[in-house]
Amino acid sequence: MIMPATTLADRALLRLSGEDVRGFVQGLVTSDVAGELPVWTGLLTPQGKCLFDFIVWRDGDDLLLDCEADAADDLVKRLAMYRLRRPIGIARDPQLAVHWSKQPADGSADPRLAALGRRWLAAPGEPASGDEQPARTPARASPIAARVWPYGVLQASCPVRGSQRLRSTERRAGP
Questions:
Q1: Biggest alpha carbon distance in the chain?
Q2: Which of 69, 71, 111, 153 could form a disulfide with 12 if both were Cys (CB 3.0 to 4.6 A apart)?
Q3: φ, ψ for residue 89 (rounded to 5)?
Q4: End-to-end CA separation in angstroms for the chain
Q5: Where are the domains of the chain?
Q6: Which CATH architecture has domain 11-92?
């Protein structure tokens, strides 16, 4: 069965534009954004706690941050706080959406882990490459949400509770 491409409704894109945008982001995040993009990175507190995680994409001289939609406004505020007087624009980009597919011909491999499928940025509802139908938009959860748990890939705001606890620190008792 071929899984259709879909728009990730729980993701938002922030556009950073202006003078030396890569240098600005490079000084704030945990990964190298001066090299090949897309790259998965995070913004930490001075104590090293994760505030936000996102994927950085290039769009000409601008950078696009693929982040959780629920955290997008907080991320804009945080980045604006660090911007100081730099001539850098930071805003949501409603003209683009994050799309996902498991098909190897679509987009770029998820920079967190290739097994999570393929991602690309395009207008909302745009068909995946090779598809005749527009990408479907889920009403609530992302189709990759269930795929990331088995690999231990979590988003910054992803709750871990009850029977869904990560077991990476548990030791198995001997026979």
A1: 63
A2: 69
A3: -90, 135
A4: 41
A5: 11-92, 95-151
A6: 2-Layer Sandwich (3.30)
pLDDT by residue, tens only, the chain of 175 residues: 455 678 898 999 999 999 999 999 999 999 999 999 999 999 999 999 999 999 999 999 999 999 999 999 999 999 999 999 999 999 999 999 999 988 888 899 999 999 889 999 999 877 655 444 444 444 344 555 555 545 556 555 544 433 333 333 333 344 4
State the pTM of this model: 0.76
**The residue type at 78:** R
With tokens 């604006």, the residue in question is 80
* Extended beta strands in 27-139, E state: 39-44, 50-59, 62-68, 88-92, 97-101, 108-109, 118-122
Q: Tokens 């729980």 label which residue?
A: 10
Whose tokens are 């706080």? That residue is 81
